[in-house]
């Protein structure tokens, strides 16, 4: 099955976030890149979970055969909450480092800790 255009954009988002984590030297930019990558992973999970169907699995008179699975939806909500709390904790750490050092550049912080 060929890859969907939406899946391609989501995978590019994940790759951009990963490259930001690897290449950026500013701690704030690393936290934001991690958030972009997390958003891409959640979006990819939603794209994969929506392949089965789009209808809500509620019992009714209308016969529907392509239901959306509610379990991935619950997992995604949990992942969003956990991701938000981790991002908040990382930003608190960045604020603490910003109070102790005049910069958020990793190279400068490492130089300051050695001397």
UniProtKB/TrEMBL annotation:
List the GO cellular component terms.
plasma membrane
Keywords per UniProt: Cell membrane, Membrane, Transmembrane, Transmembrane helix
Q: How does it sit in the membrane?
A: Multi-pass membrane protein
Would you say which domain of life the source belongs to? Answer: Bacteria
The membrane spanning regions, by residue number, are 6-23, 35-54, 74-95
Q: Where in the cell is it found?
A: Cell membrane
Similarity section = Belongs to the CPA3 antiporters (TC 2.A.63) subunit C family.
- Entry protein name: NADH-quinone oxidoreductase subunit K
- What species does this protein belong to? Pseudanabaena cinerea FACHB-1277
